[in-house]
Structures are given as C-alpha cells and as structure tokens.
Amino acid sequence: MKYLFFFLYSAVSFLIYLIAFPFLFLFSFKSKYRQSIPARFFLWKNRPLKADGIWFHSCSFGEAKAIKPLVDLLPKEVLRMSTTTQTGFSVISEYTQESRYLPFEPLLFFWLKPQKMLLVMEAEFWYLLFTLAKRRGAKTLLINARMSDRSFPKYQKIAWFYRQIFKYIDEVYAQTQTDKERLELLGAKNVTVTGNIKLSVLPKPAKQLPKPEGMLVCGASTHEGEEMLILNAYLALKEQEGDVKLLLVPRHPERFDKVIQMSENFAKAHKLSMQEYSEHREIVSDITVVDVLGELVTLYAISDLVILGGAFEPIGGHNAAEAAQFGCKIVSGKYYFNQKDIFSAIEGIAIVEASNLSKRVLQHALLKPAKIKIRTDITPMIESIKKVL
Questions:
Q1: CA separation for the pair 185, 151 (Å, rounded)
Q2: Which of 8, 105, 113, 241 is at 20 to 30 A from 83, Cα to Cα?
C-alpha cells in the first residue's frame, strides 16, 4: 500500500507542477516572490545542500528564530537549513551558508542529498520531504509539533493521508499533551511532550536603545485590519495622557509601504508627527513605523505596553514570551489559537475583543506586568541529535 501511495502521490505532484508552471513563472516577477519562487520551483541559484549534515526545515521568520537554541549547540560545519519564505531565509542564512529554499516536492527527487538527520518545525507536513529524507538515510524528527483546535478537524477528515506521512517520521516532539494526543490519532509514533521550543531560550536585544521620555506603546507583529485598530487606541491614550509614543511593527515586510502610507495619513489628520524607523533609528516622533526586520525584541526591551497583533484578526497569535521576558504589560486579541501553550505559560496577558481595545488601553494602569511561569526543556531533542553526530 505505501509503495502504491508513494507512486501515485509522486505522479500527482509532478502533474500539478506541470500545470502550475506558467502561473508560477508569472508570479515570480512579483517582489514578494522574486527570490522564493525561482528558487523553489525552478531551482534557480538553489543548489542542493551538502550531504551528511543536520538539516533543519522551518517555514516562517518566527520558526527560523525559534530553532536558534538547537542551532547554537551544534558545530557550524554540520548545519543545513531550508525554508519556504523570504523572511525565513533572512534568518537561516545567518546561521550557515548551507541555507536554501526548500524546492517544491517533485523536485526533491533530484535535489535532496543524504543527511544524518532532518528536523522539521511545527506543522510542515511535506510527504516527499520526509519520505525521501528517510529513504536516503536520515533520522526524521517533527519538532515543536502542534495541532490547533482550528486545524485538527480538517486534518481528521484526511487522517489517512497523514498516516502515510507519519510512517516516515521517527520521533515527534509536541508542544502540549493535547497536541500529542491529536498527533497520535493522525498516526504519529514516539511522541514526547517537551513544551514550546520558543520558551526554551528567548532571544535577547541585539543592542541597547535609549528609552524615549514618556510612555512607549509597541503595536507588535500586526496584520491587515489591526494597524488602524491600534492607531485609534493610541490616539485615545495620547489624548488622555499626552506624552505617549507608538511603535507600529507590521509582521510582513511586503506590507511596510502600505502601513507607512496609512500611518502618514493618520498622523496628518490628527496633527501628529510620524517617522520610518529605517531612516534614523531613534524614536522621536509620535508614531514610528518599524520597517525593518529583526528589531522587535530590542524594541520590547524599552516598551511599557505591548499590543500584540495576529490575534485581533483570526491569524492565530504570536509569541508573547519575547515581550513578557521584559515585564511589559501585554494586551492581545482572542484569536491566539496557535499560541495557546505560550499564552498559558505567561501570567498577566490581557485578552480583549477588538472593539474593546481602546477602552483596555486607557485602563493600562490596572494591568499587571507580564511574567513567564513555565520554561521548556529541549534536552530530549538534544539527546536525539547527539546520537547521530
């Protein structure tokens, strides 16, 4: 059965690739995909990773940052990295020159070389990635694995498919006991609960910034529909207290220009000053749009109140621990379904409806500084890696 599935899946993926080829070619001219599509679908400047390494695959910017505690424990010469996004690539390329975009699945037949181990983050269920890596000698791990309330019913409907994938995954390290049980129902074996790797070792500020006078609010990792919500809450707070500044940090760089334009219009309408952080990295204006990557933790260190995005719209939330380590007061939305374990490990996060954000921000004096109650032990993963070195 598994050989028949392998043949059929491979044939279908090749067919999909051929059908999508002309559309992918057109999309490759868009700035958002100018690097990733040519590399992933045409193998442009995307040579195979060197063989016999420890290969980490992570999708997003946050996942790529989260694997750093494991990366730091390994000799640089064994590191192999892949990702599917430009923001993820900006992180992994700092770890090693052996960093690549992960090719679309059928191209892995020609691209993938034997490795000692493959570690895949969270929910990157690529059948041919696991299958070919395993068949070519790698020990395969799914790390920081999760299965949210929102996703699990969808996965259950095609559980037969995920059982085929888990046949080629040797070990699974889940974030919570609930994740463990759900993954086992989908066919996972050798599942260990370790907690969220993002709580093991938190990133530290790259430098120390001077804190501006007055109160500093950070609207962090925002998505479409959240910036205006935060701008209005900030305006209400400024009208109440006067000396307040706002940092607005969009999650995705392709939205920087749109958020800058929105903030300029808002500032002009309400007679406020506004700046782009990339122009001069001092916080002197009422509103500062942070249009660079990798600065968020440095900015958390000087913030008084963090309005954490990704949860006022049904996105799934973002890592609150990075701000909580500095004792910031944190307000977030109700759609944090991808971050439940992190939120439950932090004391003091205020969860509000989007419509009540301004009201809660005006009551910031009643909020408690956030505090991390639980840390993650990544020792089991480290021990597993050591066995193949």
A1: 14
A2: 8
Tally the residues of the chain.
Answer: 389
Residue 52 identity (one-letter amino acid) = D
Q: Convert the pLDDT of each residue in 5-20 to its tens digit.
A: 999 999 999 999 999 9
Backbone angles phi and psi of 297, in degrees to 5: -65, -40
**Average pLDDT of the segment spanning 106-118:** 97
How buried is residue 224: exposed, middle or buried, by Cβ count under 10 Å (0-12/13-18/19+)?
A: middle
Helix (H) or strand (E) holding 282: none
Q: Please indicate whether the domains covering 2-193 and 215-372 agree at the CATH topology level.
A: yes
CA angle 57, 107, 80 (to 5 degrees): 30
CATH number of 215-372: 3.40.50.2000
User: Residue ranges per domain, the chain?
Assistant: 2-193, 215-372
The two structure tokens encoding residue 388: 């193949």
Bridge partners (DSSP) listed for residue 120: 57, 142
Q: 24 falls in which pLDDT band (50, 70, 90)? A: confident
Cβ atoms of 288 and 302 within 8 Å: the answer is: no
Phi and psi of 64, rounded to 5°?
Answer: -65, -35
Query: pTM, whole model, 2 decimals?
Result: 0.81
Cβ neighbours, 10 Å, residue 8? 10
User: Is residue 277 a contact partner of residue 238, using CB atoms and an 8 Å limit?
Assistant: no
The Cα–Cα gap between 77 and 356 comes to: 51
φ, ψ at 382 (rounded to 5°):
-60, -45
DSSP-derived letter for residue 202 is P
The end-to-end CA distance of the chain, in Å, is 33
Q: Using alpha carbons, select from 104, 87, 113 the residue that is nearest to residue 40.
A: 104
Find the helix or strand (DSSP H, E) in which 333 lies.
Answer: none
Q: Which tokens is 226 given?
A: 């959240």
d(Cα 32, Cα 41) in Å, to the nearest integer? 15
| Domain 2-193, CATH among 3.30.1330.10, 3.20.20.140, 3.40.50.11720, 3.30.365.10 | 3.40.50.11720
Angle between helix 127-135 and helix 2-27 axes, rounded to 10 deg = 120
The reported pLDDT for the residue numbered 338 is 86
Distances in Å between the Cα of 312 and the Cα atoms of 12, 54, 150, 249, 297 are 38, 38, 16, 15, 21
Does residue 260 contact residue 253 with C-beta atoms inside 8 Å? no
